[in-house]
């Protein structure tokens, strides 16, 4: 009975746990067609996941330099090397440089006192030491700090009876000024770098392809979250895609420029509110022959670069992002984010990344242009159309057509007259 009661309790407990636990969910049985399509979907997901980005969404370049043997070049440009280091290494070097210089010159002051015998005459008031009140290494270290940082408490001072101490004081003062200028300048540049300003420059999560003014266009949106504007802002875009030349040379990650308004000046932005950057897919575009079905199979990446000067500091700022083929949505547009309020315009950044579907041809821009050209062709070809192909003006074309008509009419009248004369002559002979 006890065994049955315990078993029954366990069954009830597990039954209640199955009912109450949200983690245990029985998946419904999929239809046969769905089960057959599931491996294809997994393969497609794996293919999307395997696409390696050249530039991350946050703008970081996914490139690592290996086998760099000429490392002395980093030490040649030591200032830039220190500025590019991470904050923890930069602070460590900052503290280490000051500590090493203080310890080194502290040791030199102690060595001078030791060689002169100042440490043996500490209590002798008749002895003139190199540095007053220096009685050991700790006091020499403190005097080194006071000298290099120009604190000057006045308790430990150098005397005029120590020429080697005067030389060391001059050397430490000069080197201390150089170290201060170098390290403080490095920290100032590190703090004032405009990289963090780029964090407030945002790009849309997806790029879209849809019709605009009768043309197929590739579009993405950029925005600035701060009230202080980016001065002289400009936008660029690059297509990153491997290619093979006609000679058989394979070029990995080939960069092709994407025109986003360079000819018309649209690439220079007045970035006060979010803007939609448009690339017209024409004959010079790398997307000229790419259709919707072709786009899903392409392994490409679009890198967008937004540059400008920070209004507060005047330093150049750069923000980057990228879009792979799965992030380019065909047949969509961006949701408007700008509304007119009472006396001002309001930007709703909650809808910054939102897109909505619109009617868009699934064919490529080249096929779309071919279909449009075929619909504009006339059914019959006249003499005027042939002359227009040869480049004659319309006035000359009309004159040629009129002259041709008159000549035809004159020939027909002359033929009729000749026929009448022939009939009269035949009747007279009869």
TrEMBL record:
GO terms for cellular component: monoatomic ion channel complex; plasma membrane. It is found in: Membrane. Keywords: Ion channel, Ion transport, Membrane, Phosphoprotein, Potassium, Potassium transport, Transmembrane, Transmembrane helix, Transport, Voltage-gated channel. Residues 201-371 form the Inward rectifier potassium channel C-terminal domain. It catalyses: K(+)(in) = K(+)(out). It is a multi-pass membrane protein. GO terms for biological process: nervous system development; potassium ion import across plasma membrane; regulation of monoatomic ion transmembrane transport. It holds the Pfam family IRK_C. Residues 402-416 have a biased composition (Polar residues). The record marks 180 as: Role in the control of polyamine-mediated channel gating and in the blocking by intracellular magnesium. Residues 387-430 are annotated as: Disordered. The chain crosses the membrane at residues 91-112, 166-189. Gene3D superfamilies: 1.10.287.70, G protein-activated inward rectifier potassium channel 1 (2.60.40.1400). Coiled coil: none annotated. GO terms for molecular function: G-protein activated inward rectifier potassium channel activity. Residues 55-194 form the Potassium channel inwardly rectifying transmembrane domain. Belongs to the inward rectifier-type potassium channel (TC 1.A.2.1) family. KCNJ6 subfamily. This is G protein-activated inward rectifier potassium channel 2. It comes from Mastacembelus armatus (zig-zag eel).
